[in-house]
Amino acid sequence: MRRPTAIRAAVALAAVLTLSACNEIDQAQQGVNKAQECATLASKLTGIDLNPRTAPAEVEAKAKEVEDTVNGLTSEDVKSAGNALVDKLGELTTALRKADAAEINQAIDDVQASARNLATTCNIPVDQILGQ
Predict the structure, then answer these.
(1) Which of 8, 29, 46, 47 is 20 to 30 Å from 86 by CA-CA measure?
(2) Can you tell me the mean pLDDT for 12-37?
(3) Left, alpha or beta for 109 (phi > 0: left; psi -120 to 50: alpha)?
(4) pLDDT tens digit string along 44-99?
(5) Per the confidence metrics, is the pTM higher than 0.90?
(6) How many CA atoms lie within 13 A of 5 on its CB side?
């Protein structure tokens, strides 16, 4: 009778170890996916010119490109930070069209803050987000 109990215990232990290993593999894969999504999103933002003389259409086009990328993301925290940045780029576009210097400067600051948030979410330097 002792032998079946020992076998059952060994099988149960093997099952627990297998589940634990699968969980670790899944977490590692999620980390890889998040890193890939961050890199893709950062590449879409490289070269954006954040200054009061930037053409609104340029910012608008970049916002659309980023939005299209964000819509395809699976990592919820990256997607959330990306959407927030898209919103701030939209506000910058509006401010540039109004040509109100104070509003433009505030919108640029907001885009930079949102980019810092995305960089923190992605655990990368902010200069990799905005190239600054």
Answers:
(1) 29
(2) 60
(3) alpha
(4) 887 788 889 989 999 999 999 989 999 989 899 999 999 999 999 999 999 999 99
(5) no
(6) 2
Full 3-state SS string of 52-91:
CCCCHHHHHHHHHHHHHHHHCCCCHHHHHHHHHHHHHHHH
What lies within 8 Å, CB to CB, of 38 at 6+ separation is 78, 118, 121, 122, 123, 124
Nearest residue to 82 via CA among 96, 91, 94, 72: 72
pLDDT band at 43 (very low <50, low <70, confident <90, very high): confident
- CB neighbourhood size of 17 (10 A): 10
Only one residue has tokens 């608008």, namely 60
> Where do the structural domains in the chain lie, given as residue ranges?
31-130
